[in-house]
Amino acid sequence: MNENRTALVTGGARGIGVEISRQLAERGLRVLVAARQLEAAEEACRTIGPGALPLALDVSSAKSVTEAVREAGELTGGGVDVLVNNAGVSLDGELRPPYVDEEVLRATLDVNLVGAWRVAEAVVPGMVRAGYGRVVNLTSSYGSLALMDSGRHPAYRVSKTALNAFTRMLAGELSGTGVLVNAADPGWTRSGMGGPSAPRGPEEGADTPVWLATLPDGDDTTGGLFAGREPLPW
Ligand SMILES: NC(=O)c1ccc[n+]([C@@H]2O[C@H](COP(=O)([O-])OP(=O)(O)OC[C@H]3O[C@@H](n4cnc5c(N)ncnc54)[C@H](OP(=O)(O)O)[C@@H]3O)[C@@H](O)[C@H]2O)c1
């Protein structure tokens, strides 16, 4: 039942995001591949092939989110059925609590938390009206309170903990609507953020997000945090 479904992948033109876009297109979804630069999205769409449509989207700008969702409607003639909030930044330097780089903290939260929230606000009401939706938030084990044992990457960690909280709240609000909301940790994956020595390739990193984005009709998996398709402690 993936045909006729439309997915929006934020940061979908490179890193784990382009692999998520590719795998969703392979499963028969129409995929809106979003990047801050339209040319980057167009280039990614050429490599993915038919079913991929380029979109300019900067999740740190409310105006860009509004314009992108309007453009998505014009391109597809419909709404977004599947949202993958993949866009993310990791900006921390060496500072650890109690020291704080406020600029880094705000910029990180603006993309990793508020960005995901902004895009959800723009597309989830349409999912609720349609009685179908899948929202996947790309998080990290670094955001797990249960596993939090140091202050390395503090802004990044806090942003993903907050994104996890947003995932739980949104899932609770949407219970029974047909919209399933989950968080996916791709694991340490080779990409711009993960670097070249990460043990996992993009295909493996994209697996859990794509699984959650394509949960079949009748599935009631929602409000969860998963890595390797298995639950991870919050
Ligand atoms: N790689 C890992 O080991 C790892 C581990 C755990 C979690 N994650 C999470 O997985 C997700 C993807 O990470 P990645 O490894 O693929 O990172 P990456 O290679 O650094 O790519 C980051 C992506 O985020 C997009 N992005 C950044 N700021 C944006 C903004 N303001 N608006 C829209 N898009 C923006 C970029 O889009 P542009 O093309 O426009 O620059 C790019 O597509 C992130 O949420 C990350 O936190 C990654």
TrEMBL record:
Keyword Nucleotide-binding: no
UniProt keyword list: NADP, Oxidoreductase
Region described as Disordered: spans on this chain: 187-207
Bilayer-spanning residue ranges: none
InterPro entries named among the record's database cross-references: NAD(P)-bd_dom_sf, SDR_fam
Keyword NADP on entry: yes
UniProt family annotation: Belongs to the short-chain dehydrogenases/reductases (SDR) family.
Name of the protein: SDR family NAD(P)-dependent oxidoreductase
Organism name: Streptomyces doebereineriae
